[in-house]
Design goal:
Rossmann fold, seven-stranded parallel β-sheet, alpha/beta, 12 strands, single chain, five-stranded parallel β-sheet
Length: 344
């Protein structure tokens, strides 16, 4: 148990949420908003432009912290500098659910990875992302590209049948908080849901198949939802081999990380009809390059990595951090600890 914890707010946060964190009197919360972007600016847009004097003050604050709310400037390099300069640092909370990749980008030594506990905001974004995944499956079942094509051509008819969710098999790849909630929502809508995961977990699915059987499972799916973290193990998991096995016209929805898809293979499958619709909140490179074929393909729906955003996101992240701060001070296990071998 620790008597007191000095927390430095390293990323933009509204004052009322700083106050929420500071309710625990055992926390000394340090917040200098003049050194950070406006909280209303998306943290993914860019870092605060500081004068040399402001940068020095910002780094002095970071170097005085026992704990950080947010990775400094969302930068692996800035995190590495802070860890090297601050031997008292014990805990860093990353803002994105996939914040393990920020930790990985820092290239920290094993001693530092053992000295500092890293946590993420996993679970905070589960509801909006699960809803976006349901939207994607519905868009595929109800043939959104065909409907939009008819509208653009000003053609009324011919009348053709649309899919029914009760006759739709959905393969959910990755049964973390997002995948499990997606499974529950789709099951409630009448879909037959099959999970793909490395181990057995409690989930509202008909069955769970191992990752090694992904291609076989994909062959009988009407929709594939990817809800995976970005790790070495998940890189390119939706591969050319898997896409060669799919049922023609399958829907692909990605609410995980763009690195989990072999994007050239996906584009080829979209062009030849193996994939009838791709609904993507993430891409391999972000922002998506202007020359990407994904912009022009009629059977693609793109969201600029925005499906997780909701009005409640900052409050939920602050509440998660506050709960973990209490856990740390009480000597209890923290939530959402990063696996520093696979970095998720």
């Amino acid at each position: 148990m620790t008597d007191r914890l000095r927390v430095v707010i390293a990323t933009p946060l509204p004052e009322d949420l700083v106050a929420l964190i500071a309710r625990d009197e055992r926390l000394e919360v340090v917040h200098e908003p003049a050194l950070l972007n406006d909280p209303d600016i998306d943290w993914m847009v860019g870092v605060k432009q500081r004068t040399p004097e402001e940068q020095q003050r910002y780094e002095r604050l970071l170097d005085s912290a026992d704990a950080l709310f947010g990775v400094p400037d969302q930068s692996g390099r800035a995190l590495a500098r802070t860890v090297a300069a601050n031997p008292r640092l014990r805990w860093v909370h990353t803002i994105p659910a996939g914040g393990g990749q920020q930790v990985r980008a820092a290239g920290l030594a094993q001693d530092d990875l053992e000295r500092i506990v890293f946590t993420t905001s996993a679970g905070v974004h589960a509801t909006p992302l699960a809803e976006f995944a349901v939207f994607g499956v519905l868009a595929g079942a109800k043939r959104l590209p065909w409907l939009e094509g008819k509208r653009r051509a000003r053609e009324w008819g011919p009348r053709e049948q649309l899919g029914l969710l009760g006759e739709t098999t959905v393969l959910i790849v990755g049964l973390g908080s997002i995948g499990r909630l997606t499974a529950s929502k789709l099951t409630a809508l009448g879909c037959r849901v099959v999970g793909v995961h490395r181990r057995e977990v409690e989930a509202d699915v008909e069955r769970i198949v191992p990752v090694e059987q992904l291609a076989d499972a994909a062959a009988s799916a009407d929709a594939i939802v990817l809800a995976l973290p970005g790790t070495d193990a998940t890189r390119g998991m939706l591969s050319a081999e898997v896409l060669a096995a799919v049922r023609p016209g399958v829907t692909v929805v990605n609410v995980g990380r763009g690195s989990t898809v072999d994007e050239p293979a996906l584009i080829e499958a979209l062009e030849d009809g193996r994939v009838g619709l791709a609904v993507l909140d993430v891409t391999a490179v972000e922002p998506l390059p202007a020359e990407s074929p994904l912009w022009d393909l009629p059977n693609v729906v793109l969201s600029p990595h925005t499906a997780a955003i909701s009005a409640h996101e900052p409050r939920l992240i602050a509440e998660l951090f506050a709960d973990n701060a209490s856990r740390l001070l009480d000597g209890r296990e923290l939530r959402n600890v990063v696996d520093t071998r696979e970095f998720y």
